[in-house]
Amino acid sequence: MTLWAVVIAGAAAVVFAAAMLWSRSLYNGAVCLLVVLLQTALIYVLRGAPLLGLLQVMIYAGAVMVLTVITIMASGGAAAAERFADFALPRGLAALGVAAVSAELALTLAGAPPHAATVAAPGLTAAFGADLFHSYSLATEAVTLLMFLAALAVLPDKEPS
Amino acid sequence: MNAAVWATSGALFALGLAAVVLRRQMLAMLLGVELMVAAADLALVHGACRFSDPEALAAVAVVLAVAAAEAVVGLSLILKVLRSGRGLDAGDLTELRG
After folding, report:
1. Phi, psi torsion values for A12, nearest 5 degrees
2. What is the ipTM of this complex?
């Protein structure tokens, strides 16, 4: 059952990625990428990496996609009306997304106990956490510093007097 | 499961690469780069879980954070270009004679 959930999540991710490629609306493209990221997060959870799945949802589907949508909105100008003319996803695509999520939930819940997806490698998440704060602690600190530096990039310039 | 995840990862990477190569809008190109990073992360996570390698999972966590910082820098660069009066089209940037 978990296998079929992974297959459906992968197929949905590929379909929405193709829709992102062909979509002329930037907003639709961002929403399609959001669905792809959520589907890959679900695959992480089903493969036994729930912490990374949650990180993917928080960092990508949360922060980065919100920034992307805000940038699309801030890139207004003369063509804004054209770009935002079609805010909604095509109905067929939206229905496909809802059907895929429903099927994945049904297959995951019906197949086995809820923890079955994560018992494939017991202790892997604990070892991952230990690695992150021991052998990877310097990299973690460097990435934290990088995030602070990246935040400086979005600060506005001083207005010329 | 193995073939399904590898196929998904490969297809996502190819579609992201196609978005970078075929689209001319800078934001669409950035979305393509994000798609390629997500595909690489998916392959790394699958390999890490298959071989029970926690260090690969830690590497994925670091890659996630670095990709988020890269997206922030890319979006702020796009905003700078927009504020300078040029459009979203990558073909408009010709200072480097590219």
Report:
1. -65, -40
2. 0.89
